[in-house]
Amino acid sequence: MGVGQAYLFGDIDVDGDFGALFNARENLQEEVPLRQKFQFVYDYLRTVTRMIAEAIGDHYGLDDEFFLTPLDKRFRFYSQGLFQRPDETLEEAAEHKMETMFAALDLKPGMRLLDIGCGWGGVAQYCGARGVHVTTLTIAPNGARYIQRIIEGKNLPGQVFLQDFLDHEPEVPYDHVVNLGVIEHIPNYRRYARKMWDVLKPGGRMCLDGSAAVEKFAVSSFTRKYIWRGTHTYMSLQDVLAELLYHGFAVLDVSNETQDYKLTMLEWAKRLESAKEDLIVGWGDQNYHVFRLYLWSGVHAFETNSLQAYHVVVERTSSPGPRPSIPRRFGQFLGNLR
């Protein structure tokens, strides 16, 4: 925290290899302030929808132009692209991401797709152009307006709702669901899996991806204060898969995309730095430095396996699964002790 704040406030600067700064973390002790620990518990116990909305609003409190500066210019994804070669462009990687998702869900014209946490409309744009009706959910007002303009401007089949996924009640279940880079904002996997079952048809598939950590809630105090407030949590793959299996889903595919996320964040960091002067003029020196530190730290984390990234495809079966209660889970835990 101290080193990170020293960089933000201009007491130190980094010229050259940003990785050298992050390598020094191994020799520093991370002490999460007690107040921050209590704040996390408070946020976790609050009304989920309200808390998530506040956290998202805080991170995206700048405007579209700031975020779109480093992102790919084709679909504007704020999650990893898929690189078939390290020297591909970010735009090509974004195209591969859509191709992979489209094939995994076996999408066809006329199908109804739910897009949860839509970013800047890449899924609505790609799938809508291929005849798929996309219902977009977002809790970011600026994102909702941006995507609505895309749908209207390109005359795409689709609609946008300013609504949290956990509150969404469709009249008819969807054929498939896509959830890209959003699971980090929904730490209650049990509720997430139960809701996913409710919104999908039997045989419907769900495709999700996201950044992951071996331990749930393993987020640094600096990240919690300056980047992702609230209960933002890197995906715990084992816990997500367990809840999906408990709730009647069959796991079709799990792919490791750690290298892809590293290459994505590397390109984002380079594009951010190339626009340094304009970003500082438009949004201030500290906002630029926060995001520069955030992006380069992501590159380092994926490179050193401190973070991973995964792509998961599951299918809703006809059985709702065992859905064990908390007492039953505790009993299983005790029974597994040796």
UniProtKB/TrEMBL annotation:
SUPFAM superfamilies in alphabetical order: S-adenosyl-L-methionine-dependent methyltransferases
Protein keywords: Lipid metabolism, Methyltransferase, S-adenosyl-L-methionine, Transferase
Gene Ontology biological process terms, A to Z: lipid biosynthetic process; methylation
InterPro entries registered for this protein in UniProt: CFA/CMAS, CMAS, SAM-dependent_MTases_sf
A Pfam family annotated for this UniProt entry: CMAS
Family, per entry: Belongs to the CFA/CMAS family.
CDD domains assigned to the protein according to its UniProt record, in alphabetical order: AdoMet_MTases (cd02440)
Molecular function terms, GO-annotated: methyltransferase activity
Record keyword S-adenosyl-L-methionine present: yes
Keyword Repeat appears in the UniProt entry: no
Superkingdom of this protein's organism: Eukaryota
Name this protein carries in UniProt: Polyketide synthase methyltransferase domain-containing protein
